[in-house]
């Protein structure tokens, strides 16, 4: 191969990268299972009432918030393990916990054991793998973060749609209406008898078997390119020294952008999280049947998929503030008007579709924001801490639902979510979405801006342009003469004659004659 065409050779890992993206999509397909709780919670509550008839919907609402909190804890664990284990190893362990939790949940006969299995164990297992598919995708195609994030995350919505429909076909295939009614304050709860709710254990066991098969295929595809910027494949230039990742993470977590987005997320998720969990009980309260509500949720999830698919691509072209601002304005509008139109089937469909669109947009845009602002390595770790805002917000709101839903009603709770979304929008107005500049030790900082600061190749990724000059060492010797002929160091030598450049400790033994040899 001609040395001059080194940067234009066909990527030898392209096929493995594509297969890895497919594996990531299948993983997100399984993740969609955690979003169907709003569709199955009335079935699960009806089933648990066979053993304890004092359990009500407002009590079982806490299952999803606890799962979100566990998912966040697992996410923190997973991102910490990235630097020690390969993604496939972490995913295997995490998915083992998740699949095991589904099987254990099928045997639970009281609320606390169900929460322990489904919410805690399953949430931690899912959380350990929650961001890894996106991380793997960014590693495979670092220049297409928005597109890759959309491709992977949209399968979360596809998984939710598919599993929602299948769950109803297993549990309530004949569209039997609830036969048990319980009044509590201003709200009437509807429950199913044993003919329907008795299918819950079968539902979890069927899903367990299907998840094992899909995950076995997905995990065989997961792979990341063998490029590690901390290894010897990187020849760092002597004038530039980066901070380590731990120092960068601490800076990112103490930045204004982190705190603002944390508050924005905390207040901005309440509307869609509440409606996506409580839509069945809300719909039944307004007189809609079970099959219609399942259809409405499935159609709504199509909009969730659309949001996850196009959201990342839009963010490659549009500023985060504009896109997220539009999403928050939707949340504010729907929060204040949903309850007034919920009795009409067509309007219920429209409002629920908008709600799921908001949900998909939030979960696809925030990872892209963190990846662009802090970079893929620091962004993925900072996002794990940022995501705790979602869990804490939902868990806090579940306390209000459990204790005050019967007094406030659906209208009062939606009013609270509308006020919270307004606060989130105000916070967004003052948020900076520009790339965060980490400080670095640069020996050329004192030189005038007109000084030529070193060799650059336009073919290098912008993510590495100012940090390092990446060259595969096995081709370095053959390419040295070619590089020497294209990159002249005479300008640098003449203009920096009075500057002593210390040689980077890592490169003391590297022959860098093609770039010039700097000595004190």
From TrEMBL:
The keyword Metal-binding does not apply. It comes from Stylonychia lemnae (Ciliate). Keywords: Membrane, Transmembrane, Transmembrane helix, Transport. The chain crosses the membrane at residues 21-40, 60-78, 90-108, 114-135, 147-171, 202-224, 258-279, 291-310, 322-342, 348-370, 382-401, 413-431. Gene3D superfamilies: MFS general substrate transporter like domains (1.20.1250.20). GO terms for cellular component: membrane. Coiled coil: none annotated. It comes from the Eukaryota. This is Major facilitator superfamily protein. Pfam families: MFS_1 (PF07690). PANTHER family: RIBOFLAVIN TRANSPORTER RIBJ. It is a multi-pass membrane protein. GO terms for molecular function: transmembrane transporter activity. SUPFAM superfamilies: MFS general substrate transporter. The keyword Lipid biosynthesis does not apply. It is found in: Membrane. InterPro entries: MFS, MFS_Riboflavin_Transporter, MFS_trans_sf.
